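Q&A log
Question type: sequence-to-structure
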Amino acid sequence: MSSSPPARAAAPGASDPIDRDTWIVAGVVMIGAVMSILDTTIINVAIDRLASDFDSTITTIQWVVTGYTLALAAVIPLTGWASDRFGTKRIYLWSLVLFMAGSILSGLAWSAGSLIFFRVLQGVGGGMIMPAVMTIMTKKAGPHRMGRVMGALGVPMLVAPIVGPVLGGWLVDDVSWRWIFFINVPIGIVGFVGALKVLETDRPQGAHKLDWIGLLLLSPGLTVLIFGLAESSSDGFGALKSWGPIVVGAVLVAAFLRHSWTTKEPLIDIRTFVGTRAGAAAGVFLLFSISFFGALLLVPLYYQSVRGESALGSGLLLIPQGVGAMITMPIAGRLTDRYGPNRLAAFGIPLLVAGMAPFAFVDADTPLALLASFGFVLGLGMGLSMMPTMTAAMQAVPPQAIARTSTAMNIIRQSGASIGTAIVSVILASNIKDRLGSKLEGAGSGGGFEAVHGLSGAQREAIAEPLASAFGGTFAWAVALLALAFLPALGMALMRFRPAADASPGAAPPVFAE
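Response status: OK
Response body:
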């Protein structure tokens, strides 16, 4: 019993093919996933144009990005309960409708204030899409096929942030910034009709009550925390409007964790993650999200601020990164189904470190081809790290906990990305001030991001070398954060993984040996 069951169970994971219906469902829900993630980055290249068209400041227009992010953070905690209560298909369809409505209204916006408000509405829909997608596919694929399906779903999660600046740059330069939003409508209609026809209607858990206390602690806590982190990007952690919300948000989140530990039916049951393999995967995913998404912010900013590349040009330089991820993501999925997901992050994170390390030594003339080639290595590591870790958590919980585990992992992704972005933003702003000092006075507020953002071509050329040094020093911290993520990944790799014996969809989840 100690050896033969695992051996027999491993075979189905390796040979059990994914049927046509499962791939069709994956293709349909991937449409929503792409739209949701794409809109977190596609807007960045339009900030200048929006500020000009609406006669507004960069600080105000930045709320077009921040408002969307805060809406995501506020609504994600509700998604797990809503999926259990009303059915995942219904929640997914309504989230698409809200997202498209927000997109249409954003494209019709007549002022900065109206655009910010409509972006919040769009974020409410977008925040529910990804947790619903993960829940749908986890239930549809079953434990033995989850790695391959999640690997396919991971492609838009990693490639969309790279495609976003390219597509956004083209639309802003050659069409209109309004089409950044209108483009979601035909895509969303196709996704809605496909989901309406293809997705199976799941049975709601009607008796499940909403944990109002948990919701009132977690959603405001995450929103306030991420707001403080966003403010720190321009003002540093020392400003009251940064550390004040961070402290308040952290207290609310801590109160939620205590509440979740003691209540009978919490919004998200943290006991699922304490002392379990799901908890180990969540720890890896948190550090990965902080380090990776923080580092990901720096690369296009370096290309634009130091090397003078356009939004479109910097997006094109990121394509090798996406290609690398697309190569390893399906491979990681097959390896996950055959051997389990525990060890893959321990191989992927060193590739991430290797791909990012050369950026710590950049100057104003580092060959762009060299950096793009290391970006390809970075992409290889992305594909081996992100989705296998997500899969490890989803496979480690019983079927009835899948929706809430998916919600928890998406909260970790969103929060980790915000934390990582804030950390590297503050470090970069500090490095810029240290190396450039009075040279940036008058260029922008505080000599940080806005100062770099407002430089003319001649000004940028005059300070290119010290500015490159500021970026290099920040990249060094990003490399250190990535290396730190290797420690819990190594710990998870040392845990033995034993697949479940039943490979059919809806079967019991894999068992993790102690």
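Response note: The chain is about 75% helix and 0% strand.
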